[in-house]
Amino acid sequence: MKYRKDIDGLRAVAVLPVLIFHAKLGFFHGGFLGVDVFFVISGFLITSILIEEISQKTFSFANFYERRVRRLLPALIFMTAATSVLAYQLMITVDLKGYGNSLVAMSLFSSNIFFWLDSGYFDRVADLKPMLHTWSLAVEEQYYFFFPLVLLIVLRWVPKLLTLTVLTILVISLGLASWAAVNAPDANFYLLPTRAWELMFGSLASILIFNNVQILERLSTANAFKNGALIVLFICLVWFDESIPHPSMLTLIPVLATLVLIVIPAPDSLAHKLLTLRPMVFTGLISYSLYLWHQPLLVFNRYMSAKSDASVRIAILLAAFALAFVSWRYIEKPFRHRNVTTRKQVYSFCAVSFAAIIGFGLYAGQDGLPSRYTQEQQALLSYLQYNAPAGQPQDNAHCFLDEDETHKALSASCFDSGSVLLWGDSHANALAKGLRYKLGEKLNETTSSACLPLVDTHFPHRKHCQTTNDFVIEHIQQANYDTIVLHGNWISHPDKIDAFNETLAALQTVNARIIVVGGVPHYLPDLPSFLLTKRLLLDADSALVKVEPTLFAEIEAIDTKLMAASEQFDNVTFVSALASFCASREQCQVILPSATEAGQWVPAAWDYGHVTLEGALLLSDQIPTNTN
Description:
The chain is α/β, with parallel strands linked by helices and 628 residues long. It is built from 25 helices and 11 strands. It has a 6-stranded parallel beta sheet, sandwiched between helices. Strands 6-9-8 form a 3-stranded antiparallel beta sheet. The longest helix is centred in the N-terminal third of the chain and has 30 residues. The radius of gyration is 27 Å and the shape is globular. The N and C termini lie far apart (81 Å).
């Protein structure tokens, strides 16, 4: 097919917002849509190649897959090898284990399935997964396996049904995505069946161009449409954000804009001239390697420094550009040309490389190679599999709901006898350990995974949250509690804090004191790893050291909103968890004396923010329950 500079320019439009979005530089809040643009472009290019070759009877699966191998795998192997060296040096056991498993999934072209199954509330922070971006490569690779066969069958036997076939796949996939956006958002994001419609729009563009369908023959109208499409796409990249269901019917807007940019040539339009600028075309040429390199660089920066200013992140993106150029010039280009590397050489290189990648992945994926650490470091990292000491009342009751459980799974003893009710998510469940030491059987608990204590609020990733919270508020209005404690990981849903006023208003119908506990300090990737990078261990000397947590300002800002809402009601008291642990922003207590073993020390939290028993006790002392 004929080379089009504007397609490379469109690749630049796709990749740059992705980089800026992942680097958290602001502005492109919908930068994740760049992947959707890539899918449309890929569908267009692959379908164009297939239609041309099948129509000319020059198509062969061997040649098609050889080109795909040459195009994708050498640069991927190069990036993976470098990333694995850094992962071995920097990643702690639990993260290296996950990384190793992700390598195996990547090698089997199933990264998207792996990260879908690995996603969830207790999943490790997505920003700390070096290979997370390979999910989109897996979607395309799976598309390469089924779509050439579909096209071959249709074009050989029923060529008149080509457009109908593409449209049928498109409509079914889009309908599935619309349903899954509400009912299965994680699967919707990662899996091919709910992404295929974006690729099919690219295929539709290819069919229209191949059949010389004349769209908008008037030059002025064509220019206006192409300019408008680029403006619409830019607005989507700026104004969309992670709160929108995605992919969904709303995603049609940027996808259709991309379709217009591909189908309408309009070489005299401003949009075409912008897309064919030399910097845009060059960025498009290196866009694949640029996409490969940006994620691991950003991840390892976060690993070495939990906080970095914008200038550091910009420098990292510039480094990604440099590595992408090297990869494109010395890896991508030589491997793509048969006069430089033979098919046998390419396949041998890829086979050996993937065997090594899978071998390392299986080795690291077993236990994360804890032998790399001293005994003291292993003791610290063991808290990543933390279980609080048992033996307190209600420890055997089922008061915390997993993501698939409804309120009907709660034990009756969780809410039928106490005078204090703790209501919230998994952070509240962690706090319950300390409150139970303090209050014993007076404490009731109804907590649920990723469900903030908010009424009339839908949580997309937890379909039972709303019904569970409805049950809790109804129970509160019928019971006779002295005190109700609300706690949660408020920063997990900053867009839902406005519902907090409604929740407090609903609680005014009961004669109880309401205690609102703000967000606890966060440490990324988790407190044990955070301490390890600062060379702090579980001993008396380290316990004297005070540190600055991650996301302090963000949590403090949400606390300000919670406090302002609390002050509107006479019976509501706000308790700052930040103040319980931190004398100031830079002076936070992270290592505490053990509550069960004299002379021993423990971290205040066992992961990024869920408190240990000792952390829960420290926070509980600041909560004025005062029951008799």
